[in-house]
Amino acid sequence: MKVIKVLGSGCANCDTTMKRIQQAADEKGVQVTLQKVEDIAEIMAHGVMSTPGVVVDDQVVHSGSVPDRATIETWL
Length: 76
Fold this sequence. Notes:
single chain
């Protein structure tokens, strides 16, 4: 099971990113643990300066915009 974290302060783009990841995982039948991280210290520890950021299995894979569906599917 993949652990996916969405890093951000709770903005609309962060919420959209969470929803897109969950929807893609559900449609592909992939089980994920999806976590929202709003703690600034933890976000900075990942080196993300622009949110939303996405971390898959402890590796930053995206930051600064809402990822598109094709990109999300590559993470799954």
